[in-house]
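Journal club prep — side note

Before the paper discussion, L.F. wants everyone to see what a predicted structure for a comparable chain looks like in token form. Sequence:
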Amino acid sequence: MTQSVERHEIEMGDALGGAHIVDASKGPLIGVGRFRRVAPFAATTTISLLIALPTSSWTRPGMAVTGTVVVTATLAVSLLFPWNRVPRHTQLAAPFLLLLGTLLLVHATGNGIASSFTTMSVLPLMWLAIYETRLAVLAAAASTGLALWLAMGVGHSQRVTNVAAFTAVFVVLCIGMGITLQGLVADARRSALDLRTQRIALERSAEVLDALPERVSRYRISDHVMTFCNSAWATQYDVEAEGVIGRRLDEFLSEDEAEGLRRQLALLGPNDPILIDSVPRATERSGGAWLEWADRYLVGPDGPEILSIGRDVTRRVNAEADLAASEAEFRSLADNSADFVWRFSLQPVPHFDYISPSVETLSGYPPSYFLEDFSRFMSVFDDAGRALIAQAISGEPLADRFDIRFRHANGSIHVVETRTSAIRRGMQGVSRDVTELRRLQDDMAALALRDPLTGLANRRLFSELLDADLSRSQRDGLPLAVAFLDLDGFKNVNDLHGHNAGDLVLCETADRLRGVLRVADIVARIGGDEFVVVYAPNDSNSYNLIQRIDRALAEPIRISDTTYVTCPASIGVADTRTVGYSSQALIAVADGAMYEAKRARQTVREAALAQA
């Protein structure tokens, strides 16, 4: 870093160009402090003129007037003229004109070197010295010497004729030169202090840059020569920082980095001063690290330069490579899976990022059909399915697993079980065709709750439905009735005609009960030939319900083309108005009433047989 700091100090000094006195690029008549720099010369010259003019005798009055006008006009123009509009060297006219006016006054007195105006010629020489232009100072000094030598030959006397005036002018000049020199020295001291402060700031900046993990370098565009690098950059390329300055950047770069450099330089310029290389570049050193570069176009003392900042993105590049490999593996698994694997993105518009080929087997449509137009995917679902998808699009959470129905390309309805998981700005999931599984599950559920022969509710479902109806009726203060039915003569049908005939009787009985009862009523088969009906006794549709059931079941049942059987039902009824809202009590009372009815009917039948 030492050489880098020293080089920046040299560049700073070159840029300042003698800034310890004036701005080298502008001159003393331009910029901040112009009046402070010119005022001592103007004041000293004015006071000297005010002292010397009244006390001098003139051998050439016209030349005296001309010299006075030239000096006065020069001072006025120096203070008032807009020098920033003309080239810098034009400013040299002011001190040369002041010197000309002073020498005219010397010649006008006829006293030669003994003139009171002779010492004033030192002022323009000091003025010229401020420009630090050695040639101008030498030319002015030689011209002054020549003019004074010529004045010696034409003067009447080479002795001071007015000692007081000469002395006064000399004292004024000494004071003015002292003040001027003091101001110049003070300016130089302040500039030196500023330079020291800048050096400290530069060293601290270098320390900060060395502490950065980023690789920082600076090089000229014209020849790619390095002008700066920090410790991280030097470490990255396994070199000493002091040995980098002055060498070409190309010596350290890999082919990939050199390609990135050419691309960046082709785009960087005054109109595009900042550019980030979006492609990480591989280095040949430091174990194959990857760097991402950001470049800044600058104009330095030697022409355009580039400030480069490189960030180590090795971990990110390796992670991206691992991710790409993982995604490739995932895609291979998904492509060969029988399940429908998908990934859905919400931005910029809802669309699929990926659909596995198995979607064609599942839906009858190829993946491209849905990838090209998301609305096609929406069109194959029912209302419930579209509502779920709209919920997902709006950002609302979905269940981890759910069923959704869709229409196959052949028109059939299928059910898919879908598992989802949220990802950034979207969702992914796996869908599996469970149409047959759900149908089998529905069938199994029906077998668990329904009588497989008649399709009526079985004892388990009846108990659940009865409890629910009792709770609702009790809450609403309404009565509920239970009718217990047992078929008479059913055993004889089985014994005489076989179990198939008995099954026909049971199915016909179930159909006739469904035909008599309301949809809201409950009918169940809870035993071989035992049925139970639950109904609301105070409903107008339930009027004479037991009599209607009795008449319906008393009708003959055809079990073959020529055979009819009759299996009327013995019916017992229990009502919550007399028994209460206990399901067990209702069934027990209804069962007892049914047996009473069966015994009564049996007694009547036996009496009829005895009379016959």
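L.F.'s comment for the group: The longest strand covers residues 290-300. Keep this in mind when we get to the figures.
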